[in-house]
Prior knowledge:
mainly alpha; Growth Hormone, Chain: A; two-stranded antiparallel ribbon; 2 strands; 1% strand; globular; disordered N terminus; transmembrane helix
Amino acid sequence: MAMEAADEERAPLLQPQPQPSRGDADSEYTGDGSVDVNNQPALKRSTGNWRACFMILGVEFSENLAYYGISKNLVTYLTKILHESKVNAARNSSAWSGACYLTPLFGAFLADTYWGKYRTVLTFLPIYILGLLTLMASTSLPSSMTSSDAGHQLHSVAVYLGLYLVAFGNGGVKPCTSAFGADQFDGGDAAELRRKGSFFNWYTFMINSGSLLASTVLVWLQDNVGWGISFVIVVVVMAFFLAVFFAGSRVYRYRPVRVSRWRQCTVTQVEEVKMLVRMCPIWACLVLFFSVSSQMSSTLVEQGTAMDNRVGPFTIPPASLATFHSIGVLLWIPVYDVALVPLARRATGKPKGITQLQRIGVGLAVAALIMAYSALVEERRLAAARAGAARTSILWQVPAQLMHGMAVVFTSIGKSEFFYDQAPRSMRSMCTALGQLAIAAGNYLSAFLLAVVASATTRGGDPGWIPDDLNKGHLDYFFWLMAALLLLDLLLFVFCAMRYKGSTAAS
């Protein structure tokens, strides 16, 4: 059975059976060409739908628990444990996050061309776990070893080896879980089609559930107990959901991978390439949005370290403020799904209330507000610090985190729907990875902007905008720069969206 489950997406049907026409909701078989684990036409009553998605969503939950368990506090780890400067730590954190969203291109290529989504996830999850085990081992190096120059270098190599093994393993998981989950709903069945629309919302819900636990439980453990215990937890959770994912092999619906789709130029492929090209301007406009997301776990964390993080008897780690981002997402998803969509549907007559591109545009506008608000908070913090007054409370960052949660519900989920729905059927993993590539590009753009700002503002012995002592810098100038760039990006996005020609779901 295991071999069948690994190969069913790759092999064409040996004896095709008659399929019901698309849109035949009363048929007992799916109408989209999907097959079951035995490579036979998939029965609606025993395969797919939410029963299969729950197991796929478990993998996504564990992956995000691990990813955010690292990324939320990575800047702090690099500065306090590896003794990197604030600029270098922010840059290296952004570069690693970018790698996590760049490797999905490779995983998506394997999934769409050779292995199928199921087998790709099953292959790359153990690599992800190996990276976590490497990080766990790096935390157990004795202090006597890491105190010397050679030991410090060995420690750094172990940390970055583990980080980039995680990034590589992520490459086979990230593009396939969302596309494989959406494949569990028959596009020809109106009821299942509506459920597929909700799937992307609840997919993001699981992402942020993992992020919420990482920002609270794991960050607290890292700051108060040690990083090693946090890695033990994520390894156990991911291994459990890997077993659950494999156990669900018989209830999944699989899309057969057509042989030579990428190796011969047909008229259909030419049209598919045109579809990809039409999506590129929209993709480019998303990059800056994800640069803002990168700031939430880098420069805003550094800002938090210069603020008063005491709330009553409690001390809040700056990285834990991301909890409010996750809370914002978890609150906005049901509000959007249950309240906003029905209201917008009545106003516009559109099945989803607003189009995917309109949804993305709302999030871009909110992102500009986040950067403007963060600049104002930094101005307030600097004024208090230079006047010798009491330090500004870290709770001033909470509105920015909540607004970022709202922006994610609009732009990130809109992005996922857009790249899945607008993709050619044979390239959905690749187009999902294209959406992830925007996140990678956003992280690399963030690293590039930080490097340019550091270079341009530290000439002549000046401390620059983002020195190690933020009280001597102007982090607010950097936030205002990001806000201005986002406003320009929003105008460009509106221009591109008005000219986009795709399916009615998008435009």
